[in-house]
């Protein structure tokens, strides 16, 4: 599994637990307090992956997202789940001193444990939680071998 984080510049960075723990040792506790960038884009997303029968499942929290905001792709045995939306609040009839705009984006990659049938895969978004079901490909299913004398 590969976790993609965004640094304070907005650039994508691969999360490496050892390196991040090392960076945390030298980061000032006040860095987060005085940070202007929202921490939502750099926060790790809650996700689970498991095998059940002939399927591989991924369940992931995507708060505030709608079906049209989510993009899922499988390439080279890597599942990529990304989502982004932008909400704007603007009042045209008044003199505007404050314009509220919130942009949220998530991206997470999962190294799949086996080959899956991409064409038969499906995803459901329910109350901000997406569940992706990917059937194992025929070549990955267990086959019985007959024992002879």
Rounded to the nearest angstrom, the radius of gyration is 21 Å
Report the β-strand fraction as a percent range. 35-45%
**Shape, per Cα inertia axes:** elongated
Order of helices and strands: EEHHEEEEEEE
* Strand segment count: 9
Question: At the first level of CATH, what is the class of the domain at 42-138?
Answer: Mainly Beta
From the N-terminal CA to the C-terminal CA, the straight-line distance is 44 Å
Largest sheet: 5 strands, antiparallel
Q: Write down the CATH topology of the domain at 42-138.
A: Immunoglobulin-like
Low-confidence segments, given as residue ranges, are 32-43
Class per helix and strand makeup: mainly beta
CATH architecture of the domain at 42-138: Sandwich
Question: How does this model look, in words?
Answer:
The chain is mostly beta strands and 149 residues long. The chain has a domain of 97 residues: Sandwich (Immunoglobulin-like). It is built from 2 helices and 9 strands. Strand 8 and strand 9 form a beta hairpin. It is elongated. It starts with a strand and ends in a 14-residue tail after the last strand. About 8% of the residues have low confidence.
């Amino acid at each position: 599994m590969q976790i993609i984080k965004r640094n304070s510049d907005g650039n994508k960075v691969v999360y490496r637990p050892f390196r991040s723990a090392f960076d945390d040792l030298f980061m000032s506790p006040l860095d987060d307090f005085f940070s202007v960038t929202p921490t939502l884009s750099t926060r790790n997303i809650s996700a689970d992956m498991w095998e059940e029968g002939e399927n591989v499942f991924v369940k992931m929290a995507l708060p505030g997202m709608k079906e049209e905001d989510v993009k899922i792709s499988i390439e080279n045995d890597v599942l990529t789940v990304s989502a982004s939306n932008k909400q704007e609040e603007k009042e045209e009839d008044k003199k505007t001193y404050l314009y509220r705009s919130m942009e949220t984006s998530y991206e997470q990659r999962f190294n799949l444990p086996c080959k899956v049938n991409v064409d038969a895969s499906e995803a459901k978004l329910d109350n901000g939680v997406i569940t992706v079901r990917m059937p194992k490909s025929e070549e990955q299913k267990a086959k019985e071998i007959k024992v002879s004398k």
